[in-house]
Please model this.
Amino acid sequence: MPSMIPSVSVVTLSQMDLEKIEVLDRSKNNWGTWSDKIQNYLLLKHGGGYLLGIIQRPDPLVDPTGAGTWNLNNLCIIAALRTRSTQEEGEFLCAFTNAYTAWTELKARHEKVGPIAQILLIQQALTMRFRRAEHRSATGMQLSDLIRRIYAIGLPKEDSFLTIMFLNTLTDDFPHVRNHIADAITTSTPSASYGPNNIRARLDVEQQLIDSEKSKSGDVAMVVSHKGGGAAHSTKTCADCGRTGHSACCTTCNGWGHNAKDCFGRGGAMEGKKDEVLARKRAACESSPFSDKLRTIRVTRPT
Model:
């Protein structure tokens, strides 16, 4: 005979209390603070067990009243999560009818982007400066907001913090490696995580590619040297990038044969001054002893 005493108590939530909790917003990376507040509130209202999966649904054949109450509480908890979320997060939660599953997937969704979001915020904070033309209090408020958002993601563990530092140090010269690592972290799972050991392996591959490229550049330079007149010729080594085969390269346009200070391409130091740069190079060439020797050879060449 079914029990007449319900084994599950009704969970009652206050809309006014819920509105005191900030909205979960992925663009603000506030999962850390939001999850603490919403979970603590539900625990106080005896509904947190649904999030943690410790309140099991009674057998409806044995306790139909308790099972019905459990169903209503479960849906109420999901509705509370959706109420304090952005439209994007609300749509994500629409797919779930179990509060524990919804909470677990929501947590995984936000913690995946944690290191990436945190490094972007840290970089943004490190580039901020107080400027004379800008109001100091406004800059201070922006900096305070960035720091709040960084800590809202949560304090990183040692491996997570090392991952953040790896991503930060790759930003300038190896953005393609950083992007590859960021994609790998985003698609990783708890059973197949992507951490410092994976990053070190990826950096080893990148180093092998760089060494191979240097070796090929050296081989090409040696061939050119031999074609130019024998083994006595030495290959040139660029003072800018350290590679053989050319004497100068530009870090602005990635071209060879000129330095960044003489680059007249778009964004270069001498943009729009092509004639001036070429004229200076011609003048330097004509004033060199080698140029005088060439002129002598041309004059004395027999007809």
In short: The radius of gyration is 33 Å. Residues 196-227 form the longest helix (32 residues). The chain has 13 helices and no strands. The CA atoms of residues 29 and 153 lie 6 Å apart.
